[in-house]
Amino acid sequence: MDDQINCPQCNSENAYHDGSLWNCPDCGHEWNPDTAAAADAGGGQGVRDANGNPLSDGDSVTVIKDLKVKGSSLVVKGGTKVKNIRLVDGVDGHDIACKIDGIGAMNLKSEFVKKA
Q1: Which letter does DSSP use for residue 110 in this model?
Q2: How far apart are CA 96 and CA 106, in angstroms?
Q3: Calpha distance 88→72 (Å, rounded)
Q4: Where are the alpha helices (DSSP H) in 1-116?
Q5: For residue 31, what are the contacts with CB-CB under 8 A and spacing of at least 6?
Q6: How far apart, in whole angstroms, are the C-alpha atoms of residue 31 and residue 97?
Q7: I need a surface site. Which of 26, 73, 79, 87 has the fewest CB within 10 A?
Q8: What are residue 68's DSSP bridge partners?
Q9: DSSP character at residue 69
Q10: Angle CA(89)–CA(30)–CA(15) in degrees, nearest 5?
Q11: Which residues, in sequence order, are CB contacts of 106 under 8 Å at separation 6+?
Q12: CA-CA distance, 79 to 13, in Å (whole number)?
């Protein structure tokens, strides 16, 4: 294929085109090359959600899978909506600071959320 694009996340050559998005079967990443090119032209990468959408302070996000809370028996269920996030310099990849109802303040990795 002459229009083949490698996955920007894992650099896999197995990416395929599906509608307006490209999908990677190896890592599960999906992206729009037009949006990615515009973001690259803008300069900074910034923090992006699981679908490649840019996140900013004050956004609302939805957790995409069940997440165990380390050091606790609590679980953040997939589909939980988190409002008013703050972007922070990531410690171990945790680049979102937020408060979740019923759990409290915690940090999340942007790869486990999608913009709401």
Answers
A1: G
A2: 8
A3: 23
A4: 33-42
A5: 8, 21, 22, 51, 52
A6: 24
A7: 73
A8: 75
A9: P
A10: 125
A11: 69, 76, 97, 98, 99, 100
A12: 31
pTM above 0.90?
no
CA distance 95 to 106: 11
List pLDDT tens digits, range 25-71. Answer: 888 888 777 765 555 544 456 889 999 999 999 999 999 999 999 88
Q: Rg of the chain over CA atoms, in angstroms?
A: 16
Q: Within its chain, how far is the Cα of 67 from the centroid?
A: 14
Secondary structure in 3-state letters for 87-100: EEEEECCEEEEEEE
Q: How far apart are CA 98 and CA 106, in angstroms?
A: 6
SS3 of residue 115 by DSSP: strand
Q: Which residues pair with 113 in a beta bridge?
A: 63
Distance CA 65, CA 49 (A): 13
Question: What's the pLDDT tens digit per position in 62-111?
Answer: 999 999 998 899 999 999 999 999 999 877 889 999 999 999 999 999 99
